[in-house]
Structure formats: structure tokens, C-alpha cells
Amino acid sequence: MEKVSAACAMDWSIKLEKALRSKNPVRAVEAILETGEKLQQWSKEPEPGTAVYSLFGLVPEEDRLFLNTMLLRLVDAFCYGDKLVKVAVVRVFMSVFKLSRGKSKSECEIWFLSKAKVQNHLEMLKRVKSVYDKGDTEAKALALILFGCWRDFASEFAPVRFLIFTSLVSSHDLEVRSSLFAAGCFCEVADDFALVVLGMLNDMVKFPELMPKTRLAAVRVFAKMGSSHAIANRAFKICMTLMMESSKDDSLVPFLVSLTKLASRYSHLASELAKVIMPFLGEDKSSHVPAAVLRCLQFLIKRGMCFSLVHVTDTAKFSSLLKQAELSPDMQLKALQIFQKILVYKLCLADASELNQLVALVENASQSQIFSSSCLAISILVGIWKEIVRTAEIRSIDVSSTSLPLQLVVLVMDRLTSLAQLCSDPCQVDFALVGEVQDLFNVLHLLVGKQSEVRLLVLDKVRLFLVNLTDGLRKPDGAHELLLGVINYKSKRGVVVRSELLASIHKFLIVFLENVECDNKSVLSQVYEKVKRVTECVRSCTFFDCHTQMIFTLLLHSPVLWGSNNDADGDSGVSLVDDMFNYGIVSLECSTQIIAERNYWPAYRAGVYAARLGAWVTSALIFDKLKTNVQSDINSFWLKSLTYLSHAEGKLQLLLMPKLVSWLRSNSYLPELSKDASGEFAHCVALHEAYMNLQSSLGMLGNIKASSEVFCFQTWFLVLKTRVMETVIDLVECLGLLNQDVCNKKQVTGCNSLKQLPRISIQLQKLAKEFDMLETCFVDIDSSSSSIISTLSLSCSVLAFAAGVVIFIPRFSFHETLPPFTSQIGVCSRLVQDLVQRLWKVDPKICELLSMLVKENESQSCSHVQPRNQVLKVCNKVKMLLSVCRDVLACIHGLQNWSNSMQEEDIMSGIMSEFNKSCRNLLSQAVMKWMQIPFGIPKYFFNIRPCVGAELFALSSDRSKSSPDAMSVEQGFQLSLDLCLQLKNIQQPRVPVRLTKLYCLLYTKLAYHTPTQHGETKRNQKSYSPWRDEDLVEMSGKLFHHAVTKSGKKPEVSGRFDWSIGVSAVVQFQPNERGQGFSSCLLDVSRFPIGSYQIKWLSGCIDQHGSYWNLLPLSGKLVFTVKKAS
Questions:
Q1: Which of 41, 223, 405, 918 is 20 to 30 Å from 1111 at the Cα level?
Q2: Domain containing 84: what range?
């Protein structure tokens, strides 16, 4: 458990005292500056509570005592030290003072240097005042700065006020500037002081002999006069008058800055300021004045004053600024940013006619020359268009008549084309150029969106970009072609830059394909053809290496394009099948050549990308070759694990590609995969072999000697994949699926086999929940990985629904095969609810049909609290799973109607054979479709680093002195705990979230009784395996429900887990910057008999986007002892 600053206060105070007593002045300065950094850290931490005092063994208020001691020692150092020491002390207090900027008035009352915190503030003021009285000009200036930093208590001390007033009229400029700083600080908290200073400032600024630096400092004080409305009004008028009386353009800028900061606090002042400064944009002023005006307007907009500017400024004014040739590009860019903000605000109030006028205004602005040379300007213009589209959709206004989207695409692609020509010139290309290309592709992705009509045009433009890039790399010279990218390049610089460009194009195409809506098969076919042309363009250029050619070829395995051959008919279907086979061979040949050239790292990256897209045969070939070319044991086991995983998925994939099997066999590649897969038992054998390979992959991963935190995700993912495969095999063997001969033989005992379906259905649904749990336990997971896991979770839920088809027939009872305390109606309801929660945004029609299967539809009630990372992306994989849902619904309705039409005495004799046949046909088709889907592997699977998690430290509040670390409670009493939740691995740059709230669920029951005493229990964070904890999913559901809904209502539970027989508590923490939170709680264990018991716990958090995440417990379970009452 890391110590908080309050627990370190005594040590810090002692170290500071020792350093200040040292005769070495350098050591004293270093200690002072180091103390300043510690005070800054301390000021950011929450106020310590009783839990902090208890966990660290502190006396209440001890930290405040040592804080005041350190502050007094710093003041003494200022009083008796030399100039360097004095400056160091001032730097310390100035750095802490800056942290108070932007705090509200209530926050300033309790901040680090407030009057409530600094108990000996009078003594500090007196000692520094003595330095002012006896010191020289520099000492007085430093003392005045200290007074300004201590404004919260120094502003009430009359002698200090008098010193500031006298210093304002001093003959020394340094002293005057320091007094102006102190006066500005005091004006922020004291209105009466501000009134006096205002009068002095008016005369001071008008004084002709005042030094320019001093006049600038005086003007800046006006910006700090906003403590009250009356003072701000008066200061604004005085400052405005002084600005208008100024005759030089150079003196306008400081006044503009101060007036802008003052006006940003009150809307009427912002409107008045805008009326005054807007004419400066058109007047004959020096160039820096309009630039300053634009910066001021930007500042007002950032402070939320856009609504005040809309009513006093003309939007067309900023649009016309974009076409003024005399304005610099920077000024035009600022005008465009202001134009965007004002336009977005006007969109909120515009009707149909006004919206069309704004669109015309944007079209007119798009003709500016700035868009031909600035990527940022183009991105701003695209952002404006997206806001217009969003507003039009909300208000049902048609804006399809405008040609602006097409103009924007042409604008972006023209800029990309010009950059492509520069990129082919070795004298002009650099990484800044590559960065601009990447930014433009990001803008293009934002412009195209999901349902844009210009997506086909974009693909054509991307191909032309590649053509221009490749043509620029060729220079005819007789019968040879010289690569210009090599000439004058140092250390393969051109190769690196070119690779970055191609990676940007490839990344854009990946995101582009992920967001293409595939409802229209003809559009999808056109997209496929254009992607194929892009691929052929890359393959035709000999300057591109095999890795580049391979990853572009693998684009045809994109989820949105996969499955198109299954939907095609006739010659089109044959052509697509041939394409998949031919391009599959291309990727295999490229991978073989990469490895032959000993380019192992590009080969590994290509294998990873192939595995992510579900091109398992290619990844199997790469990993199989690489595993023999590594030396370390960790890398060897890792590659062997990937090889077995690729073999497992490749077994199923090759069932659909017999031509590829023949090609592999003829080239002696992958003998394990290229075995004869024909025969009536081919699918069953493939399932068993895939299961064995998954187990081998998991075993290889377990051989790696590393912390379980490093490979936690990988192991958990493989465990779930293995369990799913095992359950599917159980389903296949139970009903004799996938083989007609076996099915016929099992017709006699079909009734007994059908009774196993509810058990299999419940197991599959549990696996779906475990995939959800996996998805929410890693806060740094990327969206593509989250989408793959969501699809895997949906597949388990769909198979569970298909296997549970029998329990939706009310005239058949399966109560004897269900778990204890579980009803048949409850299982039906949970199956439907689970599917509806996943599909309510994907296919509302299916959700309506599902809801009709149960009497009470509870599925919609919880959909609004669904974690963001369980939202599916629609692709052909999801569509195939939806087709299984439709088949199951049709089967259920058919069996229900047939069952209702049968007489009671005919149920067992007539319906069972048909019932068995229908169920087997349904499940056979469902399993076959499931086997055909190449789910791919999450990108996050290849992030090998410690996972983000939490450690929980706890002590009982009433612990004895003899055993302070033991948690115990007397029988009949509640257990009072002081808790510290410590986040681990959260400070890494890769973590894209900022946690705002922390929660922790504690749970114990009599069944957790353990004979081990607390003193013998050792926490071993490496031994924790979340996939082995059967209670984790239920605990996650309860914690999520509490964190998101803030209600005490218990979530629905399965029959095995009953919250009524245990004791639970949910604790909320406020995290500090280091990811620590402290709190206390009570566990009602008063009914527990004497003995030792484990406490299971799970923590969760809410990020800045409002999304919920689980945090893996990286420390062991807590253990407490119930003692006999004394």
C-alpha cells in the first residue's frame, strides 16, 4: 500500500529541517524545491478521513500539524537565508498558488493555503513583513509576491494591505510590479481592496513616465477584478475608456486581453466587448490587432460565451474573412474556428430555411484558398458539415440537395493527390508530410461515415492516390526503372516514409470497411470490386514489399466483405469463391517469401493481422514457421500457443475450402491442417481436433514463466474459447448432430437426449456472460477487440437460445433437469432478456418477436444501462447469427402451434419423433453456421503487458494492539473495516480513460469458512485466476447495477447464487491522482459462528465517458475471524 502525503508529512518535515540546518546552501535550496514538489502533490489529494488515519496509524490532525511546521520552516528560511534561498521559497509558494487557479470560491476556502488550513498564518505574515521592513528592493519584491500567494489570509491583515498601497507608489519599478501582482491577487478575494486599487490603476496607467513593463503589469490587474458583479462592471468601464483613449495600436492588445478575461465571467460584458472590437477586424489597423481580436473571440467562445457573440456578430463576417488575401493563413484559420463555433450554436436555433442559408454560407466559405493548403482547415469544414447533418437528422430536414459532401471529398482527395506527388520526391518528403496524410485520411473517414453515398467515390480516389504514388516512384531510364525513393535517401529513410504512407492508407481502408453498412448487396458487391482493384494496384507495384502486398490482400477478409460469397448466386458466387481461393494463395505465398527473406518481425505482424481478420490458414503457416526461429523460451511458448490456436480455427475454416486443402497438400504446407477433411464424420472430427488444439494452446501459454497479470487476458480468452468448444461438442454428441447416420441411430433414445438441452443452454448463456465479463475487465481495450468479443458473446447467447428451444414448449416439462431453485419460465425469460439486451440496437424487429415469447418483457428495462463495450457492429458475421435467431423463432412458433393442436393422449406418441427431428435439424444448421464464421482474434490479445487492476487493503477498525494486522470481530457484532483500494498499472500512457468513481463489492457467507487463520494466510496476487471464480459474474452484475443505477435493488440471479444467504456491502471511493481511494464500511456478520471466513471482493469504476468497467482483483481474498464474545 503506497503512502499518501499525509502519512509522509512527519518524514518530510524532518528531512527539510535537516537540510535547512546544513551549512551547504546548495543542499538547502535543493531541499526547499523538493519540498515544493511534495506540497504540490499533497495539495492535489483529498482531505484524509478516518480510514486514512486508521490504515497508516496516524493521530487525527497529525498531518495538519506537520504541514504548518513545514510552512513555518520555509518562512524562516526566507527570513534568514540568502538570495537563492529566498527565491527558492518564493518559487515553492508560487507553484502551490498556481494550483488554485480556476477553483471556485467554496473550493478556495478549503484549499491548501487557505486560512482554514494554515493555522499559524499570523506568525508567517509577521515574519515576512519584518523582511519587507528591513530588506532591500529585491527582498521587498519577493516579500510582496509571497503576500500575493497568501491572499486568502494576507488580504485580511491590515499592515500588509498598507504595505501594498505604499509599494504601488514606490520609485522602484521592481517593487511596483511585485505590488501590482499582490494587489491583483487581493482583488480576487476582497471587494473593498479592489475599489481602492481601481482608482489607483486609473491614474497609474495614464501616467506618461511609467515604464512599459510596469504599465503592462498594471493593465493586467484589470483582468482580476471579477470577484463581484459591481466591481467587474466598474473595472470594465474604466479599462474600456483607457483602451479607447490609447492612440497606439501596440497598447491595444494588453487592454483587449484584460477586457476579454473580465468579460468571460459575465455574458452582458461579453456582448458589449464584441460590439466594440468587431469593427477592429475591418479597420486599417496593424496586423497584430485583428489577430488579437480573433484570439479574444476564441477565448470567449472557449469560456462558454458563444451565445453572447451570436446575437451581436454576423456569421457572414467571418465567412468573408476567409477570402481576404491580406489576412495571413493563421488569422484565416482562427476566423474559421470562430465561424465553426458560432455556426454550430446557430444550428441549434435554425429552422429549415435558416438551415439552408447556413449550408449556402458554408458552401461559399469552402471556396477559400486556405482549404487547398491546410489540413486543419479542411477538418474544421468537415466538422461543420457533420454538425449540419446531425441537426438535419434530428429535425427531419432534407439537405441532400447540396453538393457540399462531394465538394469536401474532392477537396480532401485533391490535397492528398498533391501530397502524393510530394511524397514521391525524395528531396521534399519528410515525416511531417506523412503526418498530414494521416490526418487527411482521418478527416476522410469522418466525412464518409457509415451510410455516405460517396463511399464508392472515395475508394476510387484512394486507388488514384496509390497510382500517383507508384507512378511518382518510377522514372524511365532505358529499359530500367529507377527507384527515386532510394536516391539521396539516408539509412532507408524513403522506405520508412513510404511504409508509413501505406500503413495510413491501409488503416483508413480497415476503418472504412468496418463502418460500411452491408444491407444492400449490390453496393457491397461494388465495394468488394473496388477494394479488389486497390489490392491489385498494390500488387502491381514491385516497389512494395511482400508484407505490404499481403496486408492489402487480407483486406478481402474484412468482416463486412466476408460471407458475401455465401449470399451470392450463379457466376457471381463462383467468381467470389475463386477470388477468396486465389487471394488466399497470394497471402500464403507472400508469407512464405517474407519468412524466406528472414524478415521475422514483419512476418509476425502479418500473422497477427491475419489472425485478427480470421484468415487462420495464413496465420497458422506464419506462426508455424516462426516458432522454430526464436531462441527465448517465452517467445517459443508464445508462438507455439498461437500456432495451436490458428490450427484450431483453421480446422473449421478448411471445411469450406477443399481446394485450398489440396493446394496445401501439394506444396507440403501445414500437414496437420491439410489432412483429408472429407467423409461423413468430417465436421465432428474437426470439432474434436479443434478442441484438442485449443487445450494445447492454453497449455503452452501456461508454460510461460511470467506474472499472471501479463497474460491474464490471453489465458482467460483461451479458457472461454475452450469451454465454448467443449460445450458445442457436448451438444453435438448429445443429439448426434452433423451426421445423418448417427442421428438415425439415436432416434430411439431421443427423448432422453433432449432433456440435456436445458443444461447445455444454461451453460452457453453463462459463457456469454463470461465473455461480457472479459470485455469489461480491461479498461484499455480497443474498440475492434471489444467488437470481436461482443460477437463471440452474441454467438454463445444465440446458441444458448437455440439449445433452449425445447423449454419454450409449455406442454413439456424439464424441471428435473434444471438447477435447483430455477424455474422453466425463469430460464426462458433470461434467455430472451439476454438476447434482447444485445440486439435491441441491431435488429428491433427480432427483439419484438423475442419479447412475445415471455409474458413479462423485462429485457428493455435494463438496456439503457448496458456498458458501451457491449454494443455490436453489424457485419455479415452478426447477420448470420441473426439468421440463426430467426430459424429458432420459426421453429418455436411451429412447435408451439403443433403442440397446441395435438390432443393430450397423442402428445407422447405422435409428437416426439417430429419434435426430435425439428430440434436436431435446427441445431445442426445452427452449429454448421457457427462453424463457418471466422470470428478472428482480438487485437488486444497481442498486447502483452500487465493488466490494469486493483489491490484491496483492509484492517478492522477495532483491532487489538497485539495483532494490529489481523481482522477480527466478536461474535454477535458487525465487522467494521477501513479500506484502501489501490489501482495498479493505471498510470501507463496506453490507458485512454480517466476514472472518476470507484466502487468495491465485499461478499462473504458461511460457505466461505476456512480453517486457515489470518496469520497463516498469504496473499499471492500471481495465483489469482478470474476464470476459475464462479461467483465473479454474479458479483459483477450486482456491482454494475449499484454503480450505474444507484439503487439497492438486487439484480436477477441464477439459482446457484443467492444473495440472501450471504452478507454484502458496496463501498464508494474517491480516487486521488495515484489511483488510491479510502473508505470504511460495515459487514453484518453478527450471525456468523466462531471461525475464520473469506471475503470475496470485486471493484469497478466509472470513466469520464460514463462507461462502467470492472477492475480485476490483483490481491487475494480477505480473511476475518469471528471470536467468542468476552
A1: 41
A2: 1-106
